[in-house]
Design goal:
Elements: H1 4-19, E1 22-27, H2 33-42, E2 47-52, H3 54-63, E3 77-82, H4 86-99, E4 104-110, E5 113-116, H5 117-125, H6 129-175
Antiparallel strand pairs: 1-3, 1-4, 2-3, 4-5
Helix pairs in contact: 1-3, 4-5
């Protein structure tokens, strides 16, 4: 029979899984408390990094509808719950892991889809959401100006052609 403390811990973790855009599982074996504090700061304001118990977290993930992470719950595990931009948190984890090889990214989940450690690293290579949106807006603006130029070119070309025909007819009419 589960104790009230364990039931509360499972309920809290379940809420975190449900309210997060993404969750990244890591192994933190060999990291000091100071390094974990530095890691928490590097993840950004929209992430929470928590050292968890594997069994309770596995139950919580399953209750939240995430059963693709079951194989990753072994060894000392910590979870980065991301409520904001997952790219920012993935970059923070990747950069911290470069400087601290004891941090191992196991895998995670993004909007209900399982991600491998390699996919999380690819996610970290993306530009931030704001940069991607601004590039998209710039592309749309460029296409609109091209369309406007095209639409302006058609009437002006028609007018030039009509003027050339009128001039040619006037020239032929004057030559006869």
């Amino acid at each position: 029979m589960p104790t009230p403390d364990k039931a509360a811990a499972v309920a809290e973790l379940t809420d975190k899984f449900r309210s997060s855009n993404a969750a990244v599982l890591t192994e933190y074996r060999g990291l000091t408390v100071a390094q974990l504090k530095q890691l928490r700061r590097s993840l950004g304001a929209n992430s929470e990094y928590a050292v968890v118990k594997n069994t309770l977290t596995k139950i919580a993930a399953n209750e939240a509808g995430i059963n693709t992470l079951d194989d990753l719950f072994n060894g000392p595990t910590a979870v980065a719950f991301v409520t904001g931009d997952p790219v920012e948190s993935a970059k923070g984890l990747r950069d911290f892991a470069k400087d601290n090889p004891n941090l191992v990214i196991k895998g995670g989940v993004l909007d209900g889809k399982a991600l491998s450690a390699d996919e999380i690293k690819k996610l970290a290579d993306l530009e931030s959401r704001e940069v991607l949106l601004s590039k998209l807006a710039g592309a749309f603006k460029g296409k609109q100006s091209q369309a406007a130029q095209l639409f302006q070119a058609l009437p002006s070309k028609f007018v030039r052609t009509a003027e050339a025909l009128r001039a040619k007819q006037a020239e032929q009419g004057g030559a006869e």
